[in-house]
């Protein structure tokens, strides 16, 4: 549950939303209909946003949330149907904006990448996380194949720091087993828009809330193998 101050901070952030569904009302229509959840900021009818990863500019024409027509939506709102007219890319908007896309403000484009560095906690798995092992990655509404590119190292659970990062010799780590926390580089098969986990704390000294755009879950054969946050992009 977010505090009032956290919610106010999210409202002041540039707009960003995760697309859960996308469809065209007809074969001849140039508009695209989107269902999405607002992660941060405010979207108003008439605003121009960009759909990532394809960098598709679109103008918001109407918003429907909880069965009511709205003039705006804000952080935490679920929009059942938003009608958008594509910008300069025209007919390519339907192709470039789909489930797993992210809408964001033109002035603040989020990173789009195929390689990200993550802090992961390993759960139940018969085989450890090793370089080259493949999984299905779940990042906000994005779902796609991914591969472990590199095991950077083990993270100390008590300090939260990478073992050996303070100057002492770092022991080699080729695998992460059950219950371990590590820093891992992951490569996705397709580009995905993400938000790097903020290291800045709140005024009260507590960690800033983690955005859903920073969360990552690795699954294999229907089981959750590891989960964590994205801390850097390539």
From TrEMBL:
PANTHER family: TRANSLATION FACTOR (PTHR23115)
EC annotation from Swiss-Prot or TrEMBL: 2.7.7.4
Domain called GTP-eEF1A C-terminal: residue spans: 117-230
GO MF, one annotated term: translation elongation factor activity
Domain of life: Eukaryota
InterPro entries assigned: GTP-eEF1A_C, TRAFAC_GTPase_members, Transl_B-barrel_sf, Transl_elong_EF1A/Init_IF2_C
Protein name: Elongation factor Tu GTP binding domain-containing protein
Keywords in alphabetical order: Elongation factor, GTP-binding, Nucleotide-binding, Nucleotidyltransferase, Protein biosynthesis, Transferase
Gene3D superfamilies (UniProt xref): Translation factors
Organism: Toxoplasma gondii VAND
Keyword Iron-sulfur: no
Top enzyme category: transferase
């Amino acid at each position: 549950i977010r505090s009032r101050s956290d919610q106010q901070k999210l409202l002041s952030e540039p707009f960003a939303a995760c697309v859960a569904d996308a469809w065209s009302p007809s074969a001849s229509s140039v508009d695209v209909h989107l269902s999405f959840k607002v992660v941060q900021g405010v979207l108003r009818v008439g605003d121009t946003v960009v759909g990532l990863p394809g960098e598709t500019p679109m103008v918001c024409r109407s918003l429907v949330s909880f069965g009511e027509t709205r003039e705006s939506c804000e952080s935490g709102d679920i929009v059942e149907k938003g009608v958008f007219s594509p910008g300069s890319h025209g007919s390519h908007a339907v192709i470039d904006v789909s489930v797993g896309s992210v809408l964001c403000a033109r002035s603040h484009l989020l990173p789009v990448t195929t390689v990200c560095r993550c802090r992961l906690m390993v759960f139940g798995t018969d085989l450890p996380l090793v370089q080259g092992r493949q999984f299905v990655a779940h990042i906000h509404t994005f779902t796609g194949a991914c591969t472990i590119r590199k095991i950077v190292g083990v993270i100390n659970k008590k300090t939260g720091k990478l073992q050996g990062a303070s100057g002492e010799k770092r022991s080699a780590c080729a695998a992460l087993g059950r219950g371990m926390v590590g820093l891992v580089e992951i490569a996705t098969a397709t580009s995905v828009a993400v938000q790097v986990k903020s290291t800045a704390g709140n005024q009260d000294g507590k960690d800033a809330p983690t955005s859903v755009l920073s969360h990552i879950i690795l699954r294999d054969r229907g089981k959750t193998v590891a989960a964590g946050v994205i801390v850097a992009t390539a």
